[in-house]
């Protein structure tokens, strides 16, 4: 029973650690995406104005605006891909392995307990069907010991 409670405790701790790591990764991704949005917003305003004014002297105004917009989209894509690179599975694999081992051990313990319960039920059924058959071997042994003891004396 002690192993069962220990395994349940290990499983609960492992699940909690997996959830904590998952939330930490989500928090980090959200922070990076928010930073990407802020940087993109502020930087785009300033960079757009400077790039547009610089390009408007060289090319037509609509083409200058298109070039500036394309560069902005590429930068936003790079920042979003950096945020998406966090790997949940790699960080939680060792904890998940411990959890799985505890689950296997817990299943084995339950199978042993079920086997013991079945054996006890079978013993009770045998005793109910043949009460003397269960008592006779014990009584016969006691009688045999008493006879041997009396013969020696």
Give the N-to-C terminal Cα separation: 49 Å
Order of helices and strands: HHHH
- Domain module count: 1
The biggest beta sheet is recorded as:
none
Q: Tell me the structural class.
A: mainly alpha
Average pLDDT figure: 81
Q: How many E strands? A: 0
Q: Unreliable segments (pLDDT under 50, ≥5 consecutive)?
A: none
Q: Helix segment count?
A: 4
Principal-axes shape call? rod-shaped
Could you tell me the strand content as a percent range?
under 5%
Fraction of residues in helix: over 70%
Radius of gyration: 38 Å
Using brief descriptors, characterize the structure shown.
153 residues, mainly alpha, 4 helices, 94% helix, rod-shaped
Chain-wise SSE layout:
Elements: H1 2-58, H2 61-83, H3 88-129, H4 131-152
Helix pairs in contact: 1-2, 1-3, 3-4
């Amino acid at each position: 029973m002690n192993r069962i409670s220990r395994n349940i405790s290990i499983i609960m701790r492992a699940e909690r650690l997996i959830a904590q790591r998952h939330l930490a990764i989500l928090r980090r991704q959200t922070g990076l995406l928010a930073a990407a949005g802020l940087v993109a917003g502020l930087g785009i305003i300033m960079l757009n104005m400077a790039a547009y004014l610089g390009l408007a002297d060289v090319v037509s105004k609509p083409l200058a605006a298109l070039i500036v917009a394309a560069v902005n989209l590429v930068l936003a894509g790079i920042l979003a891909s950096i945020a998406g690179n966090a790997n949940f599975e790699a960080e939680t694999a060792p904890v998940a392995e411990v959890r799985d081992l505890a689950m296997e051990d817990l299943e084995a313990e339950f199978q042993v307990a079920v086997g013991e319960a079945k054996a006890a039920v079978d013993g009770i059924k045998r005793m109910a069907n043949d009460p003397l058959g269960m008592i006779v071997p014990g009584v016969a042994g006691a009688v045999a010991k008493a006879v041997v003891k009396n013969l020696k004396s």
